[in-house]
Specification:
- The structure holds two protein chains of two kinds.
- Chain A is mainly α.
- Chain A has nine helices and no strands.
- Chain A has one domain.
- In chain A, helix 7 runs antiparallel to helix 8.
- Chain B is an all-alpha fold.
- Chain B has a single domain, classed as Cytochrome c oxidase, subunit III, four-helix bundle (Four Helix Bundle (Hemerythrin (Met), subunit A), Up-down Bundle).
- Chain B has seven helices and no strands.
- In chain B, helix 5 runs antiparallel to helix 6.
- Chain B starts with 7 loop residues before the first helix and ends with a helix.
- Classes of the chains: A mainly alpha, B mainly alpha.
- The interface between A and B is medium-sized, with 24 and 25 residues.
């Protein structure tokens, strides 16, 4: 994974096994938590929950009740409640790397992390609890199940505000960064992600067509662009960690490293 | 890729190359992308995203042509046409600003840019007024697919114009510097502004005229 184990480099403890002596071990653990998180995300939302791709908002009441009371959905929400916090490792890593940018105000990286934390609530946790309530209270009236179903999906697809600010802050930071840790085109890519995210706004109004929560524009296009953006970001995050000079890590020196 | 700042010597050689030599042919033709390659990457991708929107609109319009036509008839073509003229003039002014920058006439370039930007602001004000009238008459987004498209397209375009005004402000500040070394930035700003213009022409044709 990393070629950092050059014997004479500062910050490397030779008394430990090669992997543990890697001075970037903390960052690499956080980095590899990203694919772990998204694999879990896929298992929860696609395989167990059947939340992605979303079912139609115009589903018949009986089908909605069947969806909400499915045992697989209950497994999905339990997994979600237990594993959502893994994303914090990714946020910590972003903060660490954004700190290396030159000529960028710290406000942008703190804002980025804060907005990501807040955005996770309506975007992931609220829908999780709506579906959990539906899954674990099968005795609820069908109308209540329909309401929970709608609330869950409207939160999941329609929570735009925080993520829009997240993409904007990232784009501004990349534009200002004199060190060019991330390429400028990735900043422009963030603006596309922002635009395609905005298009999900009408999910509150319409139940059919491209602007419904299972629509071509509101869901599919935005998701495809977001997946591509996230993939590029992860790749450049990998590159940024790999190319970070060891001297920059600020580790205490041990006698055998001097 | 992204840090393609371009000096005036190169610029004048390039302009000479484009306009034909005043004396002899240039020794080496200069091949380059005007502005920043990253900006072109953005413009091409953004146009692709909008193409998807327009394709969806065309498909939905074909499904219920009467409802869409009814919605279209309720829009003011005059106001739309006036806004088109505003934005086209603004684009022309920005193009002239770029021309003046290449000739190093920075004061003139700044004035042209300021006029172009002012027309952009007028465009936004008229658009906001148009929305206000529509919303006052009853929230039309609830009354069918056409108005969702109308607010979505004009709203996204509004956002692009606002971003364009931020970019033009940065270009203005760049031109104000005594050295004004970054011609690529002025070009990138102009490229973006022309994209905004192009998008509006398509939106105007689709929503107001078709």
């Amino acid at each position: 994974m990393n070629s950092a184990a050059v014997p004479a480099s500062p910050g490397i403890d030779l008394s430990k096994p090669r992997m543990l002596s890697n001075p970037k071990l903390d960052q690499w653990i956080c980095f590899w938590s990203i694919p772990v998180f998204y694999v879990l995300f896929g298992i929860i939302f696609v395989i167990f929950g059947r939340i992605m791709p979303p079912p139609t908002p115009a589903m018949a009441t009986a089908d909605i009740v069947a969806f909400m009371t499915s045992p697989y959905l209950s497994i999905a929400v339990v997994l979600l409640a237990m594993s959502l916090g893994i994303y914090a490792l990714n946020s910590g890593l972003m903060l660490t790397q954004m700190k290396r940018m030159e000529g960028v105000s710290p406000v942008l990286r703190y804002g980025y992390i804060a907005v990501l934390g807040v955005g996770g609530l309506p975007g992931c946790l609220f829908p999780g609890y709506m579906f959990a309530l539906g899954a674990f209270r099968p005795e609820y009236d069908a109308h209540i199940q329909v309401m929970l179903y709608e609330l869950g999906f409207l939160c999941f697809v329609g929570s735009l505000g925080c993520f829009i600010i997240q993409y904007t802050l990232f784009a501004i930071a990349v534009f200002l960064d004199k060190r060019q840790l991330f390429p400028k085109w990735l900043a422009y890519f963030s603006i596309w992600t922002l635009v395609t995210e905005l298009v999900a706004a009408p999910v509150f109004i319409t139940q059919t067509g491209p602007f419904a929560w299972d629509g071509l524009l509101a869901f599919y296009q935005g998701t495809i662009i977001w997946v591509a953006w996230q993939t590029c970001l992860t790749f450049y995050l990998f590159k940024a960690i790999k190319e970070q000079p060891i001297e920059e890590l600020g580790l205490p020196m041990r006698p055998n490293e001097l | 890729m992204s840090n393609s700042s371009f000096t005036y010597e190169q610029a004048s050689q390039f302009t000479e190359h484009l306009q034909g030599p005043s004396g002899s042919a240039p020794d080496k033709p200069i091949a380059r992308v005007p502005g920043q390659a990253a900006m072109w990457f953005f413009v091409v991708g953004d146009l692709w995203i909008f193409t998807c929107y327009f394709a969806c609109y065309a498909y939905d319009r074909a499904q219920e042509p009467m409802a869409f036509l009814q919605g279209q008839l309720s829009l003011s073509q005059d106001l739309g046409a006036f806004n088109t003229v505003l934005l086209l003039t603004s684009s022309l002014l920005v193009a002239l600003c770029l021309k003046a920058t290449r000739k190093q006439q920075h004061t003139q370039a700044r004035q042209l840019l300021l006029m172009g930007g002012t027309l952009g602001v007028c465009f936004l004000l008229i658009k906001a007024a148009e929305w206000y009238v529509k919303i006052e008459a009853g929230l039309p987004v609830m009354s069918g697919q056409f108005f969702i498209y109308y607010f979505m397209f004009t709203g996204l375009h509004f956002m692009h114009v606002s971003l364009g005004l931020v970019i033009l402000t940065l270009v203005y500040l760049e031109l104000k510097k005594a050295t004004a070394g970054n011609l690529a930035m002025v070009e990138a700003g102009a490229v973006y502004w022309h994209m905004v213009d192009l998008l509006w022409i398509i939106i105007f044709a689709l929503l107001y005229l078709m």
